[in-house]
Amino acid sequence: MAETKRKRGRPTKYKAEYTTDEHVEGFIKHCKDEKEVVTLCGYAVYIDVSEETVAEWGRVHPGYYGTIAKIKRISKSQLFQGGLNKSLSSRIVKLGLSANHGMNETQNQNITGELNQRIILGRKRK
Predict the structure, then answer these.
(1) 107-112 and 118-124 as β-strands: parallel, antiparallel, unpaired?
(2) How far is 93 from 76, CA to CA, in rounded Å?
(3) Could you tell me which residues come within 8 angstroms of residue 65 by beta carbon, excluding any fewer than 6 positions away?
(4) Residues 110 and 120 sit within 8 Å (Cβ to Cβ)
């Protein structure tokens, strides 16, 4: 007698509606109403899952990647605009851009040796 395999773990909270523009726009409107910056962390709270779950869904569900990309673009834009118009602290903008968008202040240092060979020592933070 063959037994059927049972799925282990908790059922997924993923919904196909998470890939729709209406869903993303609903989240953005929520952030605007609450005067919050759009972030993936905030989005995870909005749909009541962890940030790791959001990232995993992006890998598992191809259509969901677009949702994540749109939220990241809007987040980056809000941080830039908030910094430019001074509605956000420059420290918060810098932290948000470096932590969430991989933008760090770096400076390359090039040193030329006796043999006129270029040597790159690495990047120095300002």
Answers:
(1) antiparallel
(2) 9
(3) 58
(4) yes
Contact yes or no for 38/28 (Cβ under 8 A): yes
C-alpha dist (Å) from residue 8 to 12, 38, 56:
11, 34, 17
Do residues 37 and 96 touch, judged by C-beta distance below 8 A?
yes
- Coil, strand or helix: which one is 110? strand
Q: How far is CA 76 from CA 10, 15, 60, 115, in A?
A: 33, 26, 24, 44
Query: What is the pTM (predicted TM-score) of this model?
Result: 0.72
pLDDT digits (tens, 9 = 90+) for 68-101: 999 999 999 999 999 999 999 999 999 899 888 8
Q: Are 53 and 44 in contact (CB under 8 A)?
A: yes
Query: Would you say 97 and 87 are in contact if contact means Cβ atoms under 8 Å apart?
Result: no
d(CA 40, CA 122): 31
Report residue 10 as tokens.
Answer: 């908790």
